[in-house]
């Protein structure tokens, strides 16, 4: 069976997408902080502001810049695909721009006006939420810094790509041949 991570990399690092990032859920990814603090770790930022208590730092969401030939990327794709560890974002934005962009969506107003955490970085949430968005919401979610959101499909057998095309959500699915049942 072919290695599905090569197929994933081909989708994530497509030539038309300038930068590739992962938004990872510290609560879902085992030993994420150990990997991020390793000497050879990629560039990253916590999406929560300020200095965090250790227990909060463990479960916080993290934005990580990905490179196609980096050990972190290989580990993330091999171990995290299908485990709901996070989502991927591609586009022209730089790490600082995306950190600012993604921080805006961490809290939302609940039905009674209360402040709630919005776990948009869980692929099970985002792949259901994006198709419900109107043109204004899509413009806010993509901004000027993102070209696409990508994540595992429900069965983790394909890559879902979402793009904002003039206020309309374009969704494409790319089955991973190495994961298709024979």
Description:
The chain is 30% helix and 27% strand. With 182 residues, the protein is α+β, with helices and mostly antiparallel strands. It has one domain (4-179). The chain has a seven-stranded antiparallel sheet with strand order 2-3-1-4-7-8-9, with helices on both faces. A two-stranded antiparallel sheet has the order 5-6. Strand 8 and strand 9 (168-175) form a beta hairpin. The chain is globular.
Task: Summarize the entry for a quick read.
It contains 7 helices and 9 strands, in the order αβαβαβαβαββααβββ.
Keywords, separated by commas or semicolons:
single chain; 7 helices; globular; 7-stranded antiparallel beta sheet; 182 residues; two-stranded antiparallel sheet; 30% helix; alpha+beta; 9 strands
List the helices and strands and how they pair.
Blueprint: H1 4-12, E1 19-25, H2 32-36, E2 44-46, H3 54-59, E3 61-66, H4 71-80, E4 86-91, H5 95-103, E5 107-109, E6 115-117, H6 123-129, H7 135-142, E7 148-152, E8 158-165, E9 168-175
Antiparallel strand pairs: 1-3, 1-4, 2-3, 4-7, 5-6, 7-8, 8-9
């Amino acid at each position: 069976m072919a290695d599905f991570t090569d197929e994933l990399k081909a989708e994530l690092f497509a030539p038309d997408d300038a930068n590739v990032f992962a938004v990872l859920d510290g609560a879902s990814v085992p030993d994420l902080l150990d990997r991020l603090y390793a000497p050879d770790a990629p560039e990253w930022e916590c999406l929560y502001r300020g200095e965090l208590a250790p227990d909060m730092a463990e479960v916080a969401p993290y934005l990580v810049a990905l490179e196609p030939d980096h050990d972190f990327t290989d580990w993330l794709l091999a171990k995290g695909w299908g485990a709901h560890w996070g989502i991927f974002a591609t586009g022209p934005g730089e790490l600082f721009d995306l950190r600012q962009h993604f921080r805006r969506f961490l809290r939302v107003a609940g039905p009674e006006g209360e402040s709630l955490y919005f776990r948009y970085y869980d692929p099970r949430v985002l792949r259901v939420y994006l198709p419900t968005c109107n043109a204004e919401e899509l413009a806010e979610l993509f901004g000027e810094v993102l070209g696409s959101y990508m994540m595992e499909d429900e069965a983790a057998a394909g890559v879902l790509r979402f793009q904002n095309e003039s206020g309309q959500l374009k969704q494409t699915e790319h089955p991973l041949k190495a994961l298709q049942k024979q």
